[in-house]
Amino acid sequence: MVRITEQLIRKKSEHNELIIGTLEELSLHQEDIERIEHIGHWCRELKILLLQSNLIPRLENLNRLKKLEYLNVAINNIERIENLEALEALQKLDLTLNFIGELTSVESLRANYNLRELFLTGNPCTDYPGYREYVIIALPQLAHLDGKEITRSDRLLAAKQFPALRERIVQLEALHKIERDEQRVRVQQSIEEQEASVRDLPDDDERRATTFWQQKSEHCPETRIQMAKFSRRAKDQAAAGGKNLDRPDDRKRTRRLFAECGRPYSLNEPRVSFEFRDEPDRFELDLHVYKYLDTSLVEVDAQPNYVRVTIKGKVFQLALKHDIQTDRSTCQRSQTTGHMLIVMPKLNPERIVAPAEEKRPSQVNQSQATGGGLKGPVDIRSICGGSSQTKQPRINEDEVPDLI
């Protein structure tokens, strides 16, 4: 049996800095809770309480929650609506997929004058003829029933049928109670027979699990409790080492930051985006840290050949190709984006070769004036070699044959 403890409530109140006295919203779903307790004493400021997918058989110990506006107890083992009269601010009640067969118990909600939405889908009482008409008249303050709006015409039609309808529903409730008592005995015998058939098998035997999950069962609170216990037992066995650790899938992967030779590995456990720039004189690492993450949860460690950033216990490590000056490295974080910029000067910066400057037009004119330019006309006939005095014979163009 899972109990509601102070430790459990504080664990679920991380959004309120673990303070339960001023807590306004509490979610305790899928915890296999079997009883509502202590919440009314510890969390009196609650406005939203979520208790769906548990094993709660009864509504109780909620009368101190005067500010509660939304109560969700869907998918539990509740068979009757009760003990909610003191919830003055209750506006929405969700009882989906429970085992409520006593439909007349909804009359206990008449005192909840702020109640506007009620969900009873999946309960045995919804199969009664005239179910919707009865609830509409029994709770005149409702605006929606099972997610469907209640109109004025719906109320007028239901008011005509209500006197005879209530007598019929009381008879159906009596028949349901008899069937429920018979079902309770029948299911209990079935559970005892099933446990006797696998009593000699070990708890970790697969045959026990196969027999349990393949057997036919009735939809009732006892079956739901049995399924929850069986699932919880399997989880406890897995936590205690029931898994086969020889299989690769069950081995816990260990974190390795360095190779056997001492070379650092590069890894990104928090899966954050980053930009890395290799400048001639420095390395720049722009790490896209989450915008709303508090800086106290981030640790930076710059070493000669690697830089490590730990974000909420998860390591981001980057191996560097060149050694850096750790004492001159800096780290800054943007207040706007949350990004973190780490600048790491290199121990031996690369040499930067400046490009040769081109001569400007003024320099060219100055060189020509000092004697570096032309001094007279150029004889183009002597460029291809030969003396200027040797004249080549002229070619008679008439003697040149035609091209074929």
Automatic annotation (TrEMBL):
Q: Which residues form the Dynein axonemal assembly factor 11-like CS domain?
A: 233-346
**A biological process from GO:** outer dynein arm assembly
Subcellular localization is given as: Cell projection, Cilium; Cytoplasm
* Domain of life assignment: Eukaryota
Q: What is its main location?
A: other
Q: What does the entry list under GO cellular component?
A: cilium; cytoplasm
Q: Where is this region: Disordered?
A: 232-253, 356-404
Q: Which SMART domains match?
A: LRR_SD22
Assigned keywords, A-Z: Cell projection, Cilium, Cytoplasm, Leucine-rich repeat, Repeat
Tell me the PANTHER family matching this sequence. CILIA- AND FLAGELLA-ASSOCIATED PROTEIN 410-RELATED (PTHR18849:SF0), LEUCINE RICH REPEAT PROTEIN (PTHR18849)
- Give the family this protein belongs to, as stated in its UniProt record: Belongs to the tilB family.
**What name does this protein carry?**
Dynein axonemal assembly factor 11-like CS domain-containing protein
The organism's taxonomy opens as: Eukaryota, Metazoa, Ecdysozoa, Arthropoda, Hexapoda
